[in-house]
Amino acid sequence: MDSNAPALTVRDLTVAYRDEPVLWDIDLTVPAGILMGIVGPNGAGKTTFIQTILGLVDAAAGDVRIFGASYEEQRYRVGYVPQRGSVDWDFPTNALDVVLMGLYGQLGWFRRPGATEREAARAALDKVGMAEYADRQISQLSGGQQQRVFLARALVQDADLYFMDEPFQGVDATTERAIIDLLRELRERGCTVVVVHHDLQTVPEYFDHVMLLNVRRIASGPVEEVFTDENLRLTYGGRVGFLRRRQDAPVPPDPVPHNES
Amino acid sequence: MSLAQLEIQLVATVVAVACALPGVFLILRRMAMMSDAISHAILPGIVVGFFLTENLASPFLIVAAALTGLLTVGLVEVVERTKLVKEDAAIGLVFPVLFSLGVILIARFAGDVHLDTDAVLLGELAFAPFDRFVLAGWDLGPRSLWVMGGVLLINLIFLTTFYKELKLATFDAGLAAALGFLPGVLHYALMGLVSLTAVSAFDAVGSILVVALMVGPPATAYLLTDRLAVMVGLSAGLGALSAISGYWLAFALDASIAGSMATMAGVWFGVAVLCAPERGVVARYRTRRNQKWRFAEQMLTIHLMQHEDTPQADRETREAHLQEHLGWTPTFAERVVRRSTQRGTIERTNGHLALTPRGRKVAKQALERT
After folding, report:
1. Is B270 among the domain residues?
2. Which of B13, B151, B173, B221 could form a disulfide with B183 if both were Cys (CB 3.0 to 4.6 A apart)?
3. What is the pLDDT of residue B40?
């Protein structure tokens, strides 16, 4: 393991469903220890991109390195928070049990979680402010609480690189604040976090790096360099001034963005 | 109770428990229909296996037929993957073809053996005690008890060995795959078990009952608990309950045992739908009704508290005034007042209502919550 290797290197990654390319020739390098957002319109392939890196979707071509090695070798250094809507919250289990699932990877086949694991799971729930809900049936939690349980599950994995798919989707303001504080804390500990994000307004505030994705990689790098109107226009096509308008900025009479170049 | 009766109930119970275990995961994976598909589609496998072995209890036949079950699962996936039809339609397309193939094979080549269409649908549990397992001259009981006991044991071992993995793969297949737990392999292993169970249970109870026992008890258990481990245990218990109560229903009505067991599985589900502690119809109705009265009581106490020691108090606390102020019908107002008086939150003195200390607390708590 090369400790100086970037957290994630993606080269020439192409994914297709039949003849339709979903991701086309993606190159990306994510340095270690940063928060990175992935933004792009619906159907841009953001979720597929993460799932391909994790080996959940087969790539037609390309190469993925995590800290300089393949995902299979680095599996246990990677934490994953899928979209909240991707699981059945009516499943007969409680919050603590869901968090424990994050430790299954370390336990491996056959071994069952014990007292040590339970303690770790409780600590993670505490960290996301959900300690008192440990025994609560998961369907009785609000959307924001469910998202926190998912985050706690990723936290117990104690990974170096995290992938989170729309963690801010449909959560209340308090949860959003709690999540972003947590992401910053992870960064302070040296972790790298890659987040699929949909709110363009908060990108400069939340992330160090950003990737603009729409089947192709439009741009990636430090937010101040690549998060430009020009790149946003290339990603979303057309009226981005409207999309990224700050709430504190005065509302322009015409939402059509100005042409600068 | 004769020995034969006892043996029939024993076989029925073992079959029911063996079916309920994999059934839990079928329900949680929203794949209940797959048990229907598999239990029907194994028929051609059974027929072909029977031609080759001429013995319905042969392990080879069981394996061959179980493979047909896996073939069904694979074919459904192939049809679904064309993206031309959805999963339910794919299931509906695949299994009738295989099932009718089996029916044609029986009609054409096996008209004179035990395999007939009645037996296929409902089995014949009553005959179970006649087919004995004899080893070196010792009668060891009904053969189907041994076969199903073996299947039950296999299901138990699989479930306890891979409990954690099955749970994760069922709840979140994506994370299971990311952590390297091969959810696809687990899926086929589970489907293999469903097939094996269906094939083995088929001879004793037929294909309809296999479906009823795989789906009914787990669906009932799902209504009764929030814990997976409890759900597994409850499913097994409810399977056994359906088996034994079904046997006695058949005894009382002189009807098909298998049919009565399936009926009882349905009856217990119905009871759970009505009476389940939290999700049942009665419990939900009660919660809603209590909420209505609780809310009305809170409104009344808040109303009284707001007008306490005000110049309008005399007017506002008059019982007749509630209809006007809170928009209640006279009967409803009367009932709310009566309930609240009984619960000790208000007092009634010559037509005027007053809060008790307890009522004042109720009002304060209600206000704090909003």
Report:
1. no
2. B173
3. 87
